[in-house]
Amino acid sequence: MNTERDQLKDKPKDESFRDRMVTIDEKGKRKWIFAQRPKGKFYNIRTYVSWGFFIIFFGLPFIYINGRPLFLFNIPEAKFIIFGKIFWPQDFFIFGLTMITFIVFIILFTAAFGRLFCGWVCPQTIFMEMLFRKVEYMIEGNAPSQKLLKKSPWTGKKIFKKTTKHVAFFLLSFIIANFFLSYIIGVKQLGKIISDPLAAHFGGFTAIIIFSGVFYGVYAYFREQACTVVCPYGRLQGVLLDRNSMIVAYDYKRGEPRGKFKKNPVATEAGDCIDCFQCIKVCPTGIDIRNGTQMECVGCTACIDACDTMMKAVNKPIGLIRYASENGIANGKKLRYTSRMKFYTVLLVLLSGLLTILLLSRKDVDGTIIRAAGMLYQERGADSVSNLYNIKIINKTIKDIPLTLKLEDAPGRIIEAEGRSIAVSKEGQGKGSFFIVLPNNIIRERKLKLRVGLYEGDKKIITLATNFMGPVYRGNTN
Ligand code: SF4
Ligand code: SF4
Fold first, then answer.
1. pLDDT digit string (tens) for 69-112?
2. pLDDT at position 143
3. Cα separation, 396 vs 475, whole angstroms
4. Strand partners, 247
5. What DSSP character marks residue 262?
6. Whose CA is nearest to atom 7 of ligand 1?
7. Which residues contact 454 (CB under 8 A, 6 or more apart)?
8. By C-alpha distance, which of 434, 338, 334 is closest to 392?
9. DSSP category for residue 84
10. 211-243: burial string, b at 16+ Cβ within 10 Å, e else
11. pLDDT score, position 107
């Protein structure tokens, strides 16, 4: 028999809330979210996680291996260092594959664990909730005091609080901007920008100011919109999540029909939700998790803590809002390892294997040899022919390498155009020009394949392939 409670649970849900954004009012104006400070088990654990994040974020730029930073993402110079290994544009396929592997990992991870990343380790969430929001609570108080302050006239106290907050926000943004830049140019270069006269590094200084301004704008004003409007990962949740993904979910089976808490309830049909709105008040994106899965939910767990506190206060079991899947809530099913997850796992293992092979077989010195554009060949006297080549070499090691060229498997010779070996400085690129001279009698085709060895002293570093163009002399044909 269907009880009144079951009928209420089964009635069609009003989904009209999905037609508009919580943070925009009817006139299209921004509605400011005054998120209440969360308290509880998850908030405490997230605080510890954020400390770990801060140690890593602010500590990594100082870690150097063999004179190289552990990580560097120098986009202007197209130079990337990952775990102390340097990557140049020539390694782009490895870098691209790393990115693809990372994306597959994110897809798989999201399909299984929802927005765990957003809530727990995303820098945007951590800086916003665990740094800027905490500073805000310290200066302006909890959400109700912030609301009052906003409505109050501009007294000396309000001016003082607002100025202190924004100065603190800008200083924090400035510090973050410096560290952010150190991931691009390295902490040593950053040190020079800070210590040298301004005119010597005007570009670097401008970058610091621009980054500081962007971070300040994001954390002081833009806030949750970065997650709900801009972040592509957030926008993709609709396709990445399925009904078996783990999300922060409201147990409507248990919670509905909701109703205000009564010490001595007359009806026994009421659900466990006491309609206290605490889950909404703490939500940094301002949503009502009781409406179901929403793209705006960043999985921060603040509503879990808030609801658990209320459940304890009214002597009901905690977990009315908890980590669960939609199917788990609807059918009492446990989290499953779906076929989609299996497919992603296989893909991830394959890509990781390929990436490992590429990384292991990656050469420390690499380069290309191409024939000089617009030149065919030069006849040298009656018995030989030469071709002019350009060579580009990349040295990914941390030592300078003077390289000499030798022709492999052919009886010709190499004449370096500048009459010396090609010196390639550490972590640098070298280029040069040279002739390959071959005797007429070995040129049996118009286009010969040749191999050139690059030697450091007697040690062969690498072999590069190229072509030789020449006339096929009478008598050379088979
Ligand atoms: S609904 Fe809950 S988990 Fe989602 S953003 Fe709001 S408070 Fe965080
Ligand atoms: S905090 Fe819990 S009890 Fe209160 S409204 Fe939200 S779901 Fe209901």
1. 888 888 877 778 888 777 777 677 777 777 888 888 888 888 88
2. 95
3. 46
4. 324
5. -
6. 283
7. 365, 367, 393, 403, 404, 405, 460, 461, 462, 463, 464
8. 434
9. T
10. bbeebbebbbebbbbbbbeebeebeebeebbbb
11. 81
Q: What is the DSSP string of 362-393?
A: --SEEEEEEEPTT---EEETTTEEEEEEEEEE
Instruction: Decide if pLDDT at 2 tops 50.
Output: no
Q: Distance from the CA of 243 to the center of ligand 1, in angstroms?
A: 18
Rounded CA-CA distance 144/35 in Å is 9
Q: Token pair for residue 56?
A: 């890593």
- Which residues, 6 or more positions from 70, have their beta carbon under 8 angstroms from its beta carbon? 60, 63, 64, 81, 83, 84
d(CA 213, CA 223): 14
Q: How distant is the alpha carbon of residue 361 from its chain centre? A: 26
CA distance 115 to 300: 9
CA-angle at 205, arms to 204 and 207, nearest 5° = 65
Spacing, Cα 178 to ligand 2 middle (Å): 41
Q: Look up the pTM and report it.
A: 0.77
Dist. CA 31–CA 4, nearest whole Å: 37
Q: How far apart are CA 434 and CA 89, in angstroms?
A: 24
CA angle, 441 then 447 then 448, to 5°: 60
Two tokens at 23? 């943070």
Rounded to an integer, the average pLDDT of 114-129 is 93
**Sheet containing 71-74, strands listed edge to edge, beginning at the edge strand earlier in sequence:** 71-74, 79-82, 85-87
The rounded Å distance from CA 321 to ligand 1 centre is: 10
Answer whether the bond into residue 257 is a cis peptide, omega within 30°.
yes
Among 287, 288, 291, 322, the mutation site with the greatest number of ligand 1 atoms within 8 A of its Cβ is 287
